[in-house]
User: What shape does this take?
Amino acid sequence: MLTFIHCCAWARRANMGCLGLFALLTLQCFQWTTAPAAEEVSWTYYGLVGQSEWSQYFPDCAGTSQSPVDVITTQTKYDPNLTPLTPLGYSQHGNKPFTMYNSGHTVVIELPEWMGIGGLPWLFTAVQMHLHWGSGGPSHGGSEHTINGLSADAELHVVHYNSELYPNVSTAMTQSDGLAVLGILIVTGEETNAAFNNILNYLSRIRHADQKVFIPAFDVQTLLPTDLGRYYRYNGSLTTPPCYQSVTWTVFNERVQISKAQLLKLETILYSSKAKDADRMLLQDNYRATQPINHRVAFASFSAESGKELSSGEVTAIVIGVMCGCVGLAVIVRFIVKTIRTKEPEKERKEKTQDVALKPTPEAEKREEPSPSPQTEL
Ligand SMILES: *[C@@H]1O[C@H](CO)[C@@H](O)[C@H](O)[C@H]1NC(C)=O
Ligand SMILES: *[C@@H]1O[C@H](CO)[C@@H](O)[C@H](O)[C@H]1NC(C)=O
Assistant: This one.
């Protein structure tokens, strides 16, 4: 798999088609895996092949629709067509254990093919889920997506592929409509999140890269936030090499909570190094920096202004309220105007009689001027 991806990256760099070059690549790959160049694909988050170097080996990482992004809520666009996402079969885990392994970059839990998500233009079938985290404990970053510049402590990604259009995830991951990933932001609180212990309890069995364990199957939906109706949606990419721009992202607005102890365990238990390696390297800070949004729009399934979607009842109430207000205002204005109009002729008449009476002397006119009539003072 890695070799295949490596070859594809090489072929892309050389501006050649993957499939057409298969025979040549088979030969090339053997050279590449034995040559020092093989080091190039052992990418990391920091160091020689850290994230700023990824694009030298995986050209897609320099694309203009990369992930993760910072979701600036005032710049999102409300889309009423974004209906709540429906997890399919997430709770029907069956009796077959899940396979969980340390990839050297994260912990991966493979998901059965009957799990999927509805609510997108195609049916997407679940493949795997994995996590991203930091190293400094609570409030020190760790999530990939940020909201208004704010990081969460960790992030869960549930990866699905478009099984209506493509035969498998390897094919789908290279297509613009190939993948759908759910992003769940994780923060720390006082309470232990029992659902996450279904994963965390077994991390000690896969401390080294490439180690694998079977874990009891569990209800995957319990890892998700309760509110699946409020989320951000945008077109992006894999957040790791080869960074293919094939992901329809759904980042939920509601964050899930785990305890400080749970976060600490996640941050300190795994190694990115293999069991046979002399130097142990902790697997930490495995999150990519946010990428420019460029031409893209992030859509919100809910209205950003009110903070919540308005029901038809609420809309009716607002319309009636505004109408009543307008009618009331009209009545008041009309009353005032009427009052002024009925008093004006009276005033004019009074002034006229005064005029006639005081006309002879201009001084008299001046004397009258400074004292204004009670009506004008209103
Ligand atoms: C995925 O599907 C393609 C096209 O049918 C096939 O060539 C490839 O071998 C499949 N890959 C895997 C990993 O099953
Ligand atoms: C993603 O890209 C497709 C194809 O260009 C487009 O139809 C769709 O509206 C985009 N979705 C989002 C959320 O921007």
Q: What stands out?
A: DSSP finds nine helices and 15 strands in the chain. Residues 167-168, 170-171 surround 2-acetamido-2-deoxy-beta-D-glucopyranose (ligand 1) (CB under 6 Å). The chain has a mean pLDDT of 84. Residues 230 and 310 are 13 Å apart (CA to CA).
